[in-house]
Amino acid sequence: MKLIVSRGDVLEGEVVISGSKNSSLPSLAALLLTNDEITLKNVPRISDTEAMIKIIKDLGYKIENPEPNTVTLKAGKRKSFKVLSSEVGKLRGSYYLMGALLGSINNVIIKTPGGCNLGARPIDYHLNGFEKLGATIKYKDGIYHINAKKLKGTDITLPQESVGATINIMLAAVKAKGTTNIYNASLEPEVLDVIALLKKMGAIIKVHKEKQIEIIGVKKLSGTEHEVIPDRMEAGSYLILAGTKPGNNITIRNANYQHLITIITVLRNIGLKIKRQNEKIIVTSPEKLGRTNVKVGPYPFLPTDLQQNLTALLLRSSGESSIEETIFENRFSHIPELIKMKAQIEQMGRMVIINNSTLVGTEVRAHDLRCAMSLVVAACMAEGETIIENGEVLLRGYEDPIRKLNQIGVRIRFE
Ligand code: UD1
What ligand 1 atom has the least distance to the C-alpha of 91? Predict the structure, then answer.
């Protein structure tokens, strides 16, 4: 599908932020760790969560949606451990079924997970962690066979902070015998949210200083109810959109201000006025934007998921800006597309140099989820109409984006 976006007028209005994608995906997998009925609230209806729910249903589990954003896994004996549905390759988060099924029934057969192409995205830290816990892993014809007679707690040091590996190892370890320590663990808000869910289910998990997570294995986990945290990437994207034209005035609701503090600081530094008013964040955009140099990194640094959007916005800044991407080696698919729109932008290794540009709408392609939003940001600043091919990739991570964007005045539609 194509997204058609035109510059339009000043943006004004309110956006209600949905639940976090990166927290919902592992949380949905975590539901498999109990035989009781269990409910997750504030799950965004995006194609990644829909795919995850379909995979879980294909395994034979019974899932109900009492409300559009509520997912209840009904009680019942656990079913298949063969995760072979075609959806697995559509999202990276499907790898959480490795840890969840291994932790639940010591056995999983799963296709290679998919996800955005951001350069090499290995899962060696996950697999090494499972092996240290006592699992045996075989890989044949694109399918992982992972099983264990018994999982036993151990010490695991991650070579690099990894959201996926930290959560996956936790999912496998919560019911293992003994204590597991994950060192150099990721402590992103989404990881802490999954820990909160697991603790409500009866897991014993302690987060220590110096990025250490201690998991004391328990025999059984129980049903509970948990509300997923707001999506800081969605909220951050709308904060960035607010900067696209002088006079824009956007109110963000249901966001977690603390989780957004770095992007808010960056946006304030380039001139946006951002006020916190009770549960709302109100953003207004100045006539001109200032320049900045920023570095992406693990929380509380600027998240890599906002790098592409911010790059597009900085094309409106006076003077030269730079962003350094330190997490993924190739999260730059937006650069050649922005150049098609006449962006003055240059990539040198993992550094992007951005200069003030008069953007012109043209035909571009969204290569991945955040690339899509970055092109929407650029289109809101460009003369004329921008046609974004493969625009449906936006639906992987943004709930109801056309309605929300239209509501604040962005002229956008699918065709
Ligand atoms: C998750 C998020 C993604 C976000 C990223 C960083 C999901 C579904 N995706 O991705 O939106 O951009 O965190 O916040 O939650 N690495 C390895 N081997 C591994 C695992 C990771 O080399 O086994 C490397 C990666 O290539 C990357 C770095 O570690 O360079 C961090 O990746 P990681 O935090 O694991 O990202 P994901 O969990 O894939």
Answer: 8
